[in-house]
Amino acid sequence: MHDLIVVGAGLAGLALAARAQQEGQEVAVIEARSRIGGRSLAHRTESGCYDLGPAWIWPSMQPRVARAAAAFGLRLHRQADDGGFVFQDTDGAVQRLPHGFAQEPPSMRIEGGTTALAEGFAARLAPGTIRLGTRVEHLVLAADAVSVAAGETRLRARRVALALPPRLAAAIGFEPALPASALRQLEAVPTWMAGHAKALAIYDTPVWRASGLSGGAFSRCGPLGEIHDASLPGAASEAALFGFFAWPAAMRAARRATLEDAVRAQLAALFGPAAGSPRALLIQDWSADDLTATPADAPPLAGHPPYAPLALPAPWHGRVLLSGSESAPEFGGYLEGALAAAEAAAAMNAQHGGGLPAAGAAVGR
Questions:
Q1: Mean pLDDT in consecutive groups of 10 residues from the start of the chain, 365 residues
Q2: CATH number at residue 16
Q3: Residues in contact with 148: Cβ distance below 8 Å, sequence separation at least 6, in sequence order
Q4: Helix or strand (DSSP H, E) at 131
Q5: Cβ–Cβ < 8 Å for 6, 30
Q6: Residues 7 and 156 in one domain
Q7: Distance CA 315, CA 303 (A)
Q8: Which of 275, 300, 325 lies at the terminal end of a domain, its last residue?
Q9: Which of 85, 208, 228, 284 matches a 20 to 30 Å C-alpha distance to 36?
Q10: Do 75 and 134 sit in the same domain of this protein?
Q11: pTM of the model
C-alpha cells in the first residue's frame, strides 16, 4: 500500500510527489495524459521549445517558481518587446505605434519552456513512480485506505491528492458519495485559462523586425487579441510569434475549418504580407481538451477568479486532498499557485503522517 497517491502529473502533482518521496513516503503518480506537465505543453523544434500553455513568469512576484527554476538550472530571459507596437481596432484598421509595450515588472520566459519545471520535479522521482495514460474513475474509502480505480489499475493508499482542477475532481466517482453541496462547490470553481486557445506561428526569420516592429500587438476584432514575439534566444534560423485568441470557444468551434486562414490573414494585416505565411502554424485550444476543461469552462471569464484553499467534507476530509493550482492559497491557477498548492498539500500530508486523520468540516473556500 502506498502512503500517497497523487492524481495528476502537472506541476502541482509532481512537486507534491517529489516532496513526499523525499520525506521517505511510498508515492505513486497517476496521469491520464500520455505526457507530464498538465497545462504546460511544449512544441519542440530543432531550435528548442515553445510554450503552448503558460509562458511567462515574474520572479519578483513568484518566488516559488523562481527558486524551482534556479534549482533545476533553468535560465530566464525577458520577453522581447523592443520596437514598434501594433494596434487593430474593431473595424480591423491597423495603427503602427513607434514604441513597444513594455510590461512592468518584466515578463520572463524559461529557456526550455515551462514544461521544464515539471520535468525537473519528475526527474527527482524514483523510476516507475509515474503511470501515464491512466485515468482515475473511482475512489473508494475504507477504514485503513483509499482505493483508486483507474481502468484495470487498482491501487490503495493512506491518502490521495487530487492535483486537478476542481471541476475535473468533481467528475470522479466517490464511494461514499460526496454531498450534492460539495459537488456544486467544486463545479463552481472555474479552471483558469481552460476556455482559452493559443496560436504559435513559426518563421525562418523574424519578418516583423525588418519593419522596426517588436512583434507585439493588441486587436479588438480578432481572431487573436494579444500577440507577442515568441522567438527563442540564440536561434539564428527560426523565429516565432504567439497569440491569445480573443474569439471565445463557441466562435472558434463554429469557425474551426477556417480558423488557421483567419489567423494568417490577421498576422499579414498586422505585420506585413510575409507574416501571413509562417512555415508552421499551431493552434492549441484548451477548451477542447477534456483533461483540462469542462463545458462550464467555455464562457469567457470576466477576470481572475478569487481562488482559495479547498477541502472535502467528512468522511473524506484529510483522506483525499485537493491540491490543484485552483485550490492554492495564493496565485490560484498560475504556475506559482501550483507550487503553493503543492506546499499546502504536503503540509497537511505531513501533519497526519502515516496515521489516519480525524473527520473534518465541510468543503471550505
A1: 97 98 96 98 96 96 97 95 95 89 83 97 98 97 96 94 98 97 97 97 96 95 97 91 98 97 98 98 98 96 93 96 95 97 92 47 34
A2: 3.50.50.60
A3: 5, 7, 30, 136, 138, 139, 154, 155, 156, 157, 160
A4: strand 130-131
A5: yes
A6: yes
A7: 34
A8: 300
A9: 228
A10: no
A11: 0.94
